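YM 10:42: N-acetyl-gamma-glutamyl-phosphate reductase sequence, as discussed on the call
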Amino acid sequence: MIKVGIVGATGYAGSELVRILLGHKDVEIKWYGSRSYIDKKYASIYQNFFQLVDANCMDDNMEVLADQVDVIFTATPQGLCASLVNEEILSKVKIIDLSADFRIKDVKVYEEWYKLEHKSPQFIEEAVYGLCEINREDVKKARLVANPGCYTTCSILTCYPLVKEGIIDPNTIIVDAKSGTSGAGRGAKVDNLFCEVNENMKAYGVATHRHTPEIEEQLGYACGEKITINFTPHLVPMNRGILATAYASLKKDVTYEEVKAIYDKYYADEKFVRVLEKDVCPQTKWVEGSNYVDVNFKIDPRTNRIIMMGAIDNLVKGAAGQAVQNMNLMFGLKESEGLELVPMFP
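YM 10:58: structure's back
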């Protein structure tokens, strides 16, 4: 059995990790870390785990935790993992960080967009960007994985095949994305109150959202050059899910069959990426509660552009599910173990 510790177990992503890992046949959760609820019963915070989890919350002492588990998930705010990790800890245990601390290779870019001083830049180069469909072989050998952001997972997987194959001009990419409110976390914020969110839709982080450089960096690797995109997120009144609609200029005339063949080239053998049938647009409801990514596209010959669409559950493939997928690869397990989650509908 793989012994697991979760730091930040009482956030939405942390609780989703607990939900998924309780159904994983090769895992035992040993540590439910939560600085806010030390010594409180975990099931008293999330009553859905009543009689399923009989453990108290513990602190975030990674030095002690590293001696007790095989892998640590850090589902914590930006900056915490970087402030706690050190060589001694990494020599004992694997770490999968769900924050942005090790996603961006240029520490100056991280500090500019996150307004934080990076506390352990010496590990940035080593950290593997944990988008399994693209970096699978590197993840298998990693001891530190940077779990991708939710918006970035959806946006990158939606655009990646066409960027990689040079079909579109990557500097013309515009990503318009919508997310459910769980993406904002569990902390109390006026903007996330029911009366603020219900019957409302709003853009936020316009031209400043922190996932922008992450998308640019990863798609830049795909095309072999630095790129600049527009990314605008929106908050919509639903619990979970992300829908990304991306637009880009085509470099040449293409047919539906040619573009479909490109998507199939990259995703036909991918368990968790579903390329939908012609003219079927992804919907968040079709992936809710699952680790699937639904993608599709539409060519617009009138404007010589292509519209690429993707949908994920932000808490599963956008966070906890992807983290478990990374864990499975790191420990040589079946990649889909514990993740055979049928989407919930309605």
